[in-house]
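re: ur question from the group chat, yeah i did fold both. here u go
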Amino acid sequence: MKSDKNHSLRNVFCLNIDYYFRVFLFCAIFVRLMIKTANILNKRARFDYEIIETFSAGIVLTGTEIKSIRLGKANITESFCEFNESNELFAINTSIEEYAFGNQFNHKARSERKLLLNKRELKSLERSVETKGLTIIPLRLFTNEKGLAKLEIGLCRGKKTYDKRESLKEQDTKRDLARIKKEFN
């Protein structure tokens, strides 16, 4: 009798460990899915602008913005970057949709978001924007391996219409060559 009691306690204890282990695995998989890398591109920028130099900048986010970015609910096609009076760089017109499961403390969809760069990079960007008449355009919004949101920005010069036509011709020829290669292989 005594051995049966110990045996049943051992089974209950093992079942509890098994249950907690399953919960732990579920939480680990859930966290891994939540930290998945987001990659939101601004395809229009590569067509409208000639990219001279690129930088990777951190973004100051508030509240539930990072959750929306991880779900891919952001848009940077109409956004641009600007310096304010205190020489800080801000991303203007960046749209990050409200988080569906957020409460009253949810974030605004469109607002200015501060970008984090080194002082040296900020000074060189500001100098080139003021003197050469270049613009700063967001190219890609992504999350890195640590789960932090980053914005790849480009120092750009606007293309003329004939430049855009040339880039369209190049895309067409590349597409045609790919089709021909595919037919012969």
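okk and heres the other one u asked abt
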Amino acid sequence: MKKLNCLLILIAIASVIVLEPNSCNAQTIERENGWYYIMEGRKDSISKESIITVKDFAFLRLDSFSYSDNRMMYMIVGTINQSQVSRWADATERSIGKRICFVFDNKVITDPKVNARIESGAFSISTYKGYDLKTMFRQIREEMDVEQERIHCLEKGDLTDILGYKKLERALFEELQKPNFSSCAEDYMKSEAYLNYKTFIGKNPDYIERLFQSFLFKSSPQGLYGYLIDDIIKEKYPDAPSIRGNFREGTGSKDYDILTLEDYQKTIRKLMDIERSKNKSELSR
């Protein structure tokens, strides 16, 4: 981690944007997450049309810095897709001496004053208003991933399914984050968000690969997530091993724990391959 003086140098050199927090008038319309002009002398001072949305982001990184008293500050740093770099450059040139703002969930997160034309496509998002930039970073990355999948699926022709899956996964994540809901896995299994997600996986078993990449595999499977994974997988493959039984705690080796999860996934993939072969054989009859 770097000290705060390093942050000031980075902002001056890399993004050419100096943050000077300023209050903007409240929004009266829904806006996509992204960068907007601030229009002077209007009741709703934020432009209706975006300069760039998060769907146009090509790269994103979360940096952290510490104050002298060890308090942490976070900053999101990124670049624009090459196809939109000239638009970003023209917009920043037009805004020299003025403010632009980054809007997320229809709230102004930061409103920096632009000092120069930015031709590199670089930007930074920093705030002193108490927003959780770590959570925001993850959510923006998810939105970027959805856009990348959308473009990929448009080429393949299966856009509806992937967007449907992303929506269901997001709904399940939010359901599981609700405070003080329950400590019992069976209660979560009755929720609409979980049932919708489980049904989708059951009807589209190829999406088990996306389940392996989801937030459910980011924590220890000995807890709630393990019960949910077992319920989803065993509904489709009754002979599948339990992920809770496959995972071994107390080994003191993170690599070993990851290896057991990889072994579990390989076993499930074999069951998926067996089912695919069986379905092909039945179709060929």
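fwiw on the second one: The mean pLDDT is 78. Residues 254-284 form the longest helix (31 residues). idk if thats what u expected
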